[in-house]
Design brief:
The chain contains 6 helices and 5 strands; from the N terminus they run βαβαβαβαβαα. The termini are far apart. Helices cover about 45% and strands about 20% of the residues. α1 links the parallel β1 and β2. It has about 160 residues and is α/β, with parallel strands linked by helices. It is globular, with a radius of gyration of 15 Å. It has a 5-stranded parallel β-sheet with strand order 3-2-1-4-5, sandwiched between helices. The longest helix is centred in the middle third of the chain and has 17 residues. Bound molecules: adenosine-5'-diphosphate.
């Protein structure tokens, strides 16, 4: 069984992530989506909220399991039997970081490889941080995120 592991902050999940997930799920028998737990990073949504938003957004794709992670990515891959890390690539600006991480992970564990899916052009400018910023300034995030995320953002912004 081929198992993939897609790690990220997903704060929040966007249509760009969802595109990578939908396509990635076809490459593996099972795909884990691992929401990073980063206590030192201020996030808009808590880890549990991010996890629930991802779970709701991927309903209907049944070879996916959404988990949280505070482990080193390669260690977590080994724990769940994943042979590949999945990542998305947008513009060349992603390249440096991803190249560094891939080589670093490879140094730690050479039996786990990273595969990349190139984003669709229409999502190449899209990031969770731009969605958060747009929301903060009262903009409409509808074109960029799944419906459940839009509702969660509206509720969060109303409360703040
Ligand atoms: P991280 O903090 O690990 O970068 P993100 O949630 O920002 O977490 O991103 C997780 C993965 O999803 C990364 O590989 C990133 O390049 C990819 N990604 C983010 N936005 C998009 C997008 N619009 N299109 C394709 N891939 C994306």
């Amino acid at each position: 069984m081929k198992i993939g592991f897609y790690p990220g902050s997903f704060d929040p999940i966007t249509l760009g992530h969802l595109d990578i997930i939908t396509r990635g799920a076809k490459l593996f028998d099972k795909l884990y989506i691992a929401i990073s737990i980063n206590p030192n990073k201020k996030t808009l949504f808590t880890t549990e909220e991010r996890k629930e938003l991802v779970k709701e957004a991927i309903k209907g794709i049944d070879n996916i399991e959404v988990i949280t992670s505070d482990l080193l990515t390669v260690e977590h891959c080994k724990l769940v039997g994943a042979s590949h890390i999945l990542r998305g690539l947008r513009a060349v600006t992603d390249y440096d970081y991803e190249f560094q991480m891939t080589n670093f992970n490879h140094q730690i564990s050479s039996d786990i490889d990273t595969v990349f899916l190139m984003t669709q052009g229409k999502y190449s400018f899209l990031s969770s941080s731009s969605v958060r910023e747009l929301a903060h300034f009262g903009g409409d995030v509808t074109p960029f995120v799944p419906e459940n995320v839009k509702l969660a953002i509206d509720a969060k912004i109303r409360k703040s």
